[in-house]
Design brief:
Layout lengths: L4 H25 L16 H22 L6 H27 L4 H24 L8 H20 L22
Helix pairs in contact: 1-2, 1-4, 2-3, 2-5, 3-4, 3-5
């Protein structure tokens, strides 16, 4: 039985939701293991929460790509969906906090799930519509790998700007917990 793209996206949303939730705690659960830091949240900054969306979506897209290898625009769709989710997290978080002040934990969790849902729904829209123009699937994969590299670099060398600041500890990157 061949699954539709919509079914794959529903599975992807579930995998991203579960994976992101687990990654939120994995660094602490593994005793602050250095090797897991680029994939897991190492503090409570907005940037670290963006990692929780990126890695499950990216890792889910890899096996999914084998089932949609006939779609030249597959990686272009994935790139756009992931970027939309990565943008949605800080936009929703900072908009709410800018209006109300401070968000409760349940709302931060809802922002993560909402951003994942927006990403996957947008991918369905792109996949079912006209093919996404992409110079090449390799370009989309290279851009996703560049985003992955930034998550690695900024875990250990976070710029001293707001999106990287742990609101609880007031520190940046992995230094927040070392």
């Amino acid at each position: 039985m061949k699954l539709s793209f919509r079914a794959w996206q529903l599975i992807g949303f579930a995998a991203t939701s579960l994976g992101g939730t687990l990654l939120h705690f994995l660094y602490e659960w593994l005793g602050k293991a250095f090797w897991v830091a680029p994939f897991s949240g190492v503090n409570e900054s907005t940037w670290e929460h963006m990692k929780l969306l990126f890695w499950p979506m990216f890792f889910f897209a890899v096996p999914e790509s084998f089932f949609f290898h006939n779609r030249e625009d597959f990686w272009g769709v994935k790139l756009r969906g992931i970027i939309l989710g990565l943008i949605a997290i800080p936009v929703l978080f900072y908009t709410y906090n800018g209006v109300v002040g401070k968000s409760p934990d349940w709302l931060n969790i809802a922002i993560f799930y909402t951003s994942a849902a927006i990403s996957y729904i947008y991918e369905i829209y792109l996949f079912n519509g006209k093919k996404v123009r992409a110079r090449s699937p390799k370009t989309a994969v290279i851009l996703l790998l560049l985003i992955a590299l930034l998550f690695f670099i900024f875990t250990f060398a976070a710029p001293k700007i707001g999106i990287f600041k742990d609101p609880l500890a007031g520190t940046y990157g992995i230094d927040a917990l070392i």
